[in-house]
């Protein structure tokens, strides 16, 4: 009985590991990951360039942005609130992805990375959920910041060779 249970658990673990590894072996999955990384970098660049219209093109109509106490629901609400971030000549913060994970069917993706002040100080970590709304067109559906981990707060993390 114990051997059967152990074998079953081992087989389940191997199946899970194999399922996790397969999507990135798929050329389409590699392309989706590359596309989402490029979309995230373009989204961040719109802030750096102070280009609200480009920022808007990355937002899904159903976007949910968390932060500042109230959830911003929909593209119009996000733009109304975020417009203030585009007024000054210098962006109030910047970001770049350090991890992008895509669902097996290529419909959703999660990106995360560090957010920095204009001086380069670490502020927080962003987490964005992207949806492929048409072939090759990825838009942000959910955006939420999270606090830095203890390791991130304690380390002097220099801007790495960015995915952007």
List the helices and strands and how they pair.
Blueprint: H1 2-25, H2 27-48, H3 52-57, E1 59-65, E2 72-73, H4 75-82, E3 94-102, E4 108-116, E5 122-134, E6 137-146, H5 150-154
How many helices? The count is: 5
Per CATH, the class reads Alpha Beta
CATH topology description: Nuclear Transport Factor 2, Chain: A
- For the record, give the distance between the C-alpha atoms at the N and C termini, rounded to a whole number: 53 Å
Strand order of the largest sheet: 2-1-6-5-4-3
Helical amount: 25-40%
Which H/E pattern describes the elements? HHHEEHEEEEH
Mean pLDDT: 85
Strand content: 25-35%
What is the structural class?
alpha+beta
| Unreliable stretches covering 5 or more consecutive residues | 1-23
Largest sheet: 6 strands, mixed
Principal-axis shape equals globular
Label the CATH architecture: Roll
Whole-number total of structural domains: 1
Rg from alpha-carbon coordinates: 19 Å
Can you count the beta strands? 6
Key structural traits:
single chain, 164 residues, alpha+beta, Nuclear Transport Factor 2, Chain: A, 40% helix, signal, NTF2-like_dom_sf, DUF4440
């Amino acid at each position: 009985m114990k051997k059967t249970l152990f074998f079953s658990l081992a087989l389940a673990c191997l199946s899970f590991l194999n399922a996790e590894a397969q999507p990135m072996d798929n050329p389409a999955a590699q392309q989706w990951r590359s596309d989402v990384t490029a979309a995230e970098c373009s989204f961040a660049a719109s802030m750096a360039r102070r280009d609200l219209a480009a920022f808007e093109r990355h937002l899904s109509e159903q976007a949910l942005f968390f932060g500042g106490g109230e959830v911003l629901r929909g593209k119009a609400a996000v733009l109304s609130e975020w417009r203030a971030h585009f007024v000054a000549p210098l962006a109030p913060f910047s970001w770049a992805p350090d991890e992008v994970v895509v669902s097996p069917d290529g419909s959703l993706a999660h990106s995360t990375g560090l957010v920095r002040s204009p001086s380069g100080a670490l502020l927080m970590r962003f987490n964005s959920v992207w949806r492929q709304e048409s072939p090759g067109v990825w838009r942000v559906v959910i955006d939420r910041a999270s606090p830095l981990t203890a390791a991130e707060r304690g380390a002097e993390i220099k801007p790495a060779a960015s995915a952007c």
